[in-house]
């Protein structure tokens, strides 16, 4: 894959970008499941929008590997975001970080980096996230295809190649 851009300036705000994940793994399960994720992400006409599949199953059954393998098969950078029950809406977008005595650096989440670069974001264990955090993704996962950062005041439109998938466990988590 090409060298990854480490930062970008949008409307005068510099965002430090996350790095894509490269795993030494491949999908060895049922090929029809991999084709289903690929079909959900397919865009046939410019007016089409990719779907955002949800892969549900017991822990340890390869849900994350399946989503990652679909991204790799499409030739896309893959980004993971590990959801927790205390994931806040802004955690999904941008975090301000102190950089020096009086300077703030804005760090894009792996999700936002995928949005900007046209990668695939795999939101792992999305079942743990609150409704409020999920609601913050509504603008991104419907026909509007953008996110808004309260911290930076930015509205960032998704790259046409951006894809999203979440995994969810069927256990008590």
How does this model look, in words?
This protein has helices at 31-41, 63-73, 110-117, 131-135, 138-141; strands spanning 7-10, 13-16, 54-57, 78-82, 94-98, 104-108, 120-124, 146-148, 155-157, 163-169. By secondary structure, it is α/β, with parallel strands linked by helices. Strands 1-2-6-5 form a 4-stranded mixed beta sheet. Strands 3-10-7-4 form a 4-stranded parallel beta sheet. Strand 5 and strand 6 form a beta hairpin. The chain starts with 6 loop residues before the first strand and ends with a strand. The model has no long low-confidence stretch (mean pLDDT 93).
List keywords for this structure.
173 residues, 4-stranded parallel β-sheet, 4-stranded mixed β-sheet
Give the CA-based shape.
globular
Please provide the ordered H/E string of secondary-structure elements.
Answer: EEHEHEEEHEHHEEE
Percent helix range: 10-25%
Taking the sheet with the most strands, its summary is: 4 strands, mixed
* Overall pLDDT confidence: 93
- Treating each run of at least 4 consecutive H or I residues as one helix, how many helices? 5
Spatial strand arrangement across the major sheet: 1-2-6-5
């Amino acid at each position: 894959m090409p060298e990854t851009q480490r930062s970008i300036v949008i409307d005068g705000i510099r965002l430090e970008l996350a790095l894509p994940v490269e795993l030494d793994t491949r999908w060895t399960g049922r090929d029809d499941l991999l084709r289903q994720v690929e079909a959900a992400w397919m865009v046939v006409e410019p007016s089409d929008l990719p779907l955002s599949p949800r892969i549900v199953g017991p822990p340890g059954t390869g849900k994350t590997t399946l989503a990652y393998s679909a991204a790799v098969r499409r030739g896309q950078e893959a980004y993971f975001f590990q959801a927790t029950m205390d994931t806040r809406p802004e955690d999904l977008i941008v975090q301000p970080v102190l950089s020096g005595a009086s300077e703030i650096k804005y760090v894009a989440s792996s999700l936002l980096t995928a949005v900007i670069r046209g990668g695939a974001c795999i939101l792992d264990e999305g079942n743990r996230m609150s409704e409020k955090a999920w609601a913050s993704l509504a603008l991104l996962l419907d026909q509007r295809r953008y996110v808004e950062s309260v911290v930076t005041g930015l509205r960032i439109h998704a790259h046409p190649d951006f894809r999203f998938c979440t995994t969810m466990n069927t256990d008590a988590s």
